[in-house]
Design goal:
Layout (H helix, E strand, L loop, with lengths): L1 H24 L1 E15 L9 E3 L10 E11 L2 E12 L4 E2 L9 E8 L2 E9 L1 H6 L23 E12 L2 E8 L31 E10 L2 E11 L5 E2 L8 E2 L6 E13 L2 E13 L9 E15 L2 E12 L4 E13 L4 E12 L21 E11 L1
Length: 383
C-alpha cells in the first residue's frame, strides 16, 4: 500500500512538473493602443459646412487591443496566434462593423522558413509598405485618398511570410474576403463579399504577393493584390461618386504598389506609387477605371522627444475625370516611452469634378470641386 501511494505521489509530481513546464513555455501578451483627440474639418459636406468631432476611425493610429502568443515546439518551430479588436475610444464601441476581433484573428505555425497562418489577416500591402509609409494609418495620410490601404485585410485567409536576411517575401490567399453583415463591409462603401459559393470558387477571392528589401540605410518593396467581385460587392473610388457594381466573380480590382525609402541620419525620405485598376466582366464601364496615386513622404527626428513628418500626394482618375492634390504635416511629442501628444494638419485641393476628402475619418465628403482643410490635436498611449 505504501509503495502504491509512493508511486502515485511520484506520478502526481511528474505530471505537475510537466504541466508547469507547458505553462512556462507558452508566452501570451496583452497589448493595445488608445488614440483619440478632436478634429476640425471645413467644407465637410456638399453645402460647404464645417464640423468639429472626435474621429472614430483613427488619430495617429487606430485604437485597438489584443492578445498574441506563441508556444515553442522545438527545432525552431513555434505555434503562434493573434486576436486583435478595434475600438472607437469616443464611444467605447467596436470598429470593423462590430466584430469582436475585427482587426486580426489568426493561428498558425512559425518555422525557420517563414510563418504559415490561417484566419482574418492583413494582406501583403501592410507588410510591404510599412517601412516606406512613415505617416502610416494616420488621419491625414495615403488612406485619405484610398482608405483600403489602411484596412487591407481579408477573412478566410491562408498566408505565408518569411524573412531571409534583409529580404522579406510573402503571399496570401482568401477564399472569401469579407463576410460582413449585409449592408456593411470591411472597407467603407464596398459592400460585403463572403464568397465560398458552390460552383463559383472565384467569387470574392483575394490574393496578394510581395517582395521587400530593407536595410539600416533604406530599401524598397513591390506588392500586388487582386480582389474578385461577388454577390453584394461594390467598388468605391472614394472620389465622391457613387460606388460601382462589382457583383460578378470575373470582376477584378487590383493594386500594384512600388515603394522606396532611405535614411540620412535623422532624416527619412520615401516615395510610393500606387496603381489601382478595376476591370468589369460585363461592360458596365468600358475600359474599366484606373487611378494613379503618387506620394512623397519625409520625417525628421528633431530631438529624441520630438518628431516631425509629412507628405505630399496626388491622385489621378482619368476615366471619371477626378483628381486631387493633398499635403499633410504632423508633429509628435513623446511624453514617455508609451505616451505621446500630437498635432496634425491636412490640406486637399480637388479638381472641378473631384470630391475626395482630406480626412481618413470618413463621413466628411465635400462638394465637387471644393477644397478642404483638416486639423487634429490628440493623444496616444500604448500598453
Amino acid at each position: 500500500m505504501k509503495q502504491r501511494r509512493k508511486r502515485g505521489w511520484q506520478a502526481c509530481v511528474w505530471v505537475s512538473m510537466c504541466l508547469a513546464g507547458v505553462v512556462h513555455a507558452q508566452s501570451v501578451t496583452l497589448y493595445g493602443t488608445l488614440d483619440t483627440g478632436v478634429e476640425y474639418i471645413n467644407h465637410a459636406n456638399a453645402a460647404g459646412q464645417s464640423m468639429v468631432r472626435v474621429p472614430s476611425n483613427t488619430g495617429e493610429f487606430p485604437s485597438n487591443f489584443g492578445l498574441q502568443g506563441n508556444e515553442p515546439l522545438g527545432s525552431g518551430y513555434k505555434a503562434i496566434f493573434k486576436l486583435e479588436s478595434g475600438i472607437n475610444v469616443g464611444t467605447g464601441s467596436s470598429t470593423q462593423v462590430g466584430r469582436l476581433f475585427g482587426r486580426q484573428a489568426w493561428v498558425g505555425i512559425s518555422t525557420p522558413y517563414g510563418d504559415l497562418t490561417f484566419g482574418r489577416q492583413y494582406s501583403m500591402i501592410v507588410w510591404a509598405i510599412d517601412s516606406s509609409d512613415m505617416i502610416g494609418p494616420s488621419l491625414y495620410s495615403i488612406a485619405s485618398l484610398d482608405p483600403y490601404i489602411a484596412t487591407s485585410r481579408a477573412d478566410n485567409t491562408v498566408e505565408w511570410r518569411g524573412r531571409f536576411g534583409d529580404f522579406t517575401a510573402g503571399a496570401s490567399w482568401s477564399f472569401g474576403r469579407d463576410g460582413s453583415p449585409a449592408g456593411a463591409s470591411n472597407t467603407p462603401g464596398q459592400g460585403n463579399c463572403a464568397g465560398n459559393l458552390p460552383g463559383d470558387p472565384a467569387a470574392c477571392r483575394d490574393w496578394s504577393a510581395m517582395l521587400k528589401y530593407q536595410s539600416a540605410y533604406g530599401g524598397g518593396a513591390v506588392v500586388y493584390e487582386q480582389q474578385n467581385g461577388g454577390p453584394g460587392a461594390a467598388i468605391n473610388l472614394f472620389n465622391g461618386l457613387a460606388p460601382l457594381g462589382f457583383a460578378a466573380s470575373g470582376d477584378h480590382d487590383s493594386r500594384l504598389i512600388v515603394a522606396a525609402n532611405t535614411t540620412l541620419g535623422s532624416l527619412r525620405l520615401a516615395a510610393l506609387w500606387l496603381n489601382r485598376h478595376v476591370d468589369f466582366a460585363q461592360p458596365a464601364q468600358a475600359g474599366g477605371v484606373t487611378t494613379n496615386q503618387y506620394v512623397l513622404e519625409a520625417g525628421y527626428q528633431v530631438t529624441p522627444y520630438f518628431n516631425v513628418d509629412g507628405l505630399a500626394q496626388r491622385i489621378v482618375n482619368s476615366q471619371q475625370d477626378t483628381r486631387a492634390t493633398m499635403e499633410a504635416l504632423r508633429g509628435t511629442y513623446f511624453l514617455s516611452k508609451r505616451t505621446s501628444a500630437y498635432a496634425q494638419f491636412g490640406w486637399l485641393q480637388n479638381s472641378r469634378n473631384g470630391a475626395y476628402s482630406v480626412s481618413g475619418g470618413g463621413l466628411a465628403t465635400p462638394g465637387k470641386g471644393m477644397n478642404q482643410v483638416g486639423a487634429m490635436v490628440g493623444m496616444r498611449h500604448t500598453f
